[in-house]
């Protein structure tokens, strides 16, 4: 079982391992989320890329727009893989972006405006594995015209498995998932992080608040069994995660 990392490097290493494990288990649409303010995503991507070394030029890396792709081509010299952008205009050709010889795909920070084009690209990719690093797609269901379009995008998002997730949801409360482990809610207690809940699905904001406020965290196994967990405490009493986030950004 993975433990909360002590540094950004540890977190990225965990994310690589979790992604490789999920791909080995047959998952083909994955996302990795390291959600911290002021995170330098290009540096994170550079440390994440070694997991694709075996694919060499069979890897294709997508950025949200042509500007991001251009900067990567400038800064990432002598790389074997191909770099392109998702593209949102009419001239963006899906056929030119996904080739039969491409075996695996990395999307770096795609956003909700790119979702229509992203859906089309993923449809062409088919069953080949793809990984989204720090996507911002949660509002995608609000974009588009009509109920049918919104539902289509909601279904698209539901096909993506979160294999690694790390976020500070309050100053001293972390939400953590490292595949194949469950979702964990952790709080700082006397300088150490204590797991107060373990859940099979990502908790909503309301679920998280209820667990923390009422101190009724429960550990739910994959079989659905529920057992009492360590009583929760008010988020305002925790300080340690601020130090953790600061360490991650250093």
UniProtKB/TrEMBL annotation:
Residues 5-209 form the DUF1995 domain. InterPro entries: Chloroplast_ADK (IPR053021), DUF1995 (IPR018962). This is DUF1995 domain-containing protein.
